[in-house]
Structures are given as C-alpha cells and as structure tokens.
C-alpha cells in the first residue's frame, strides 16, 4: 500500500498574496490525488526536537522560534523567506511527516509513501534558512532512518533548483548518496559537477530548455547507475515538480510522463537493494495544474508496488 502523509497545519504558513509558495500548492496536490484510487491517507505528526537536532543546531532552532511573529509576516535571511504565525507548525509537520513515513516503510506497514507537505525543505542548510525552506525535511528523515538502523541511504532530488542544503548537510557522510538534477544557471547557484563531497555527491546540471529526453539521459547514464552501485537500503526522493514545462520558476521542459518514468526507475532500484523501501516528499512546484498532474503521475507509479 502507498500512504499519503499530510496535515492541515501545512496550510498555516502564510506567505502573502505575492509568493508562489502558497497553501494552494497543497490543495493542488491533494486535488490531483483524488484521481488516484486505493491510497491510504495518514496524518503527519510534528517532528520532535530530537529529530530536528540531528540536523539543525539548537541555536538555529531557537532563532527560528524567536523570529516567528505573533502576527503579520517577517523575512528571515532572504527576501523570499517569509515567516508568519504558523510557519513552524507547518514546517514541523513536514519533518514529522517524513520521519513517520520512514518508520512506516522500514517496519513494513506500508510499501512506500508520499509526503504532501509544505513549506519545502531542501534549500535549508544545517544553520541557514533559504529558498522558502526552514527545516531540511529530507535530511531530518535520513538522519532519523540512520537512527533506526538504516545503513546506506540514497537521496534523489529532481527539483528544478539544486538541493544545496541537503548537499551541505551530507557532503562528509559516505553512507548517504545525494544526487540532484537541476537547471543551471538558476537559484541557488550551486550544484556544479565538481561539487562531489566525499565522493557521495553527484550533480547533474541541465541547461535551460532541456526536455524529457535529456533529463532521462542524464539519469540513465549517470544518476541511476550510481544508485545501483551504491546499493542503498532506503531511497528518499526530494520530489520537486518545478522542472515541469508549465512551471513559472524554471525553464526546463519535463513532462508528467518523465516524472512517472524516473519514479518507476527508482522503484526498480529500491526493489533491487532496499526491499522496495522508498519515501518521497514534496519540494517545489508552482504551477497549480502541473503540480496536480505531475504529483498524480508520481504517486500512480508508486502505487505500482504499493
């Protein structure tokens, strides 16, 4: 069975009328998933301080708590990082969702899971919020999986933007493989091929205008073979859908069928070495129609073994 992990607290984060990272994104995803039958919906718990502290230092967690306003909105670190009352409630559910999903998958209660949460997480570094992100959910999840006994974890990121935070957190950990395909040049300006960490980082930059054929080639020639050789016992996906041809924040030409393809390829790899154990979490995606159809294509493919 495939589980969808979500909580309405994710709607509390109020970024204002001008931000593309809005609560409408979750409505779009959940609306798209209405076309997928047989899913199990489970509420996301809030992440614990222990779970967050495996990634983020106490001083940073305290800074976020002190910065969140009682009313209105404030910027933190960047002019696109908006906090409102309820921002941290939403972010706690994001990190809690992936930790809970990993527990469900590692215990065999579900085959795989998709976390439909916001704000996203992959730009958050260990002690820096940026790019709409406050807690790095996929990193919190990976550290939680390690605490539960997972030996080798592969994190796959196909968001249009490079997952700089995830790279920064794991670049010295040989037990975590991080592979990112992303448009370059584009925010945040990182993700060059020569950024290799301790040999565990693989970046697949794509030029503006790149479509599904080249997207698939990059993963088929480099990314997927690297996952196969790494032999992870858990695969985590930072599932950003803003490489979609309709998305306003990027200039790639990926389509729904390309997201279905890479999902299927990753599921095959998970079956090969990880007993099918795979957890996906929403990152970017800012065109509501594309977000609905692409996330549905992604989850339909998860359902193949779910």
Low-confidence stretches: none
CATH topology: Arginase, Chain A
How many whole angstroms does the radius of gyration measure?
Answer: 17 Å
Reported CATH architecture: 3-Layer(aba) Sandwich
CATH class: Alpha Beta
Largest sheet: 8 strands, parallel
What report would you give on this structure?
With 306 residues, the protein is an alpha/beta fold. It has one domain (2-302): Histone deacetylase domain (Arginase, Chain A). It has 9 helices and 10 strands. The chain has helices spanning 24-33, 49-53, 58-67, 87-106, 137-147, 164-170, 212-230, 256-273, 288-302, and strands at residues 2-6, 40-43, 73-76, 78-84, 112-115, 153-157, 176-183, 201-206, 234-239, 278-282. The protein has an 8-stranded parallel β-sheet with strand order 2-1-5-10-9-6-7-8, sandwiched between helices. It has a two-stranded antiparallel sheet with strand order 3-4. Helix 8 links the parallel strand 9 (234-239) and strand 10 (278-282). Helix 8 (256-273) runs parallel beside helix 9. The longest helix has 20 residues, at 87-106.
Name its key features.
Arginase, Chain A; 8-stranded parallel sheet; alpha/beta; 306 residues; single chain; 9 helices; 10 strands
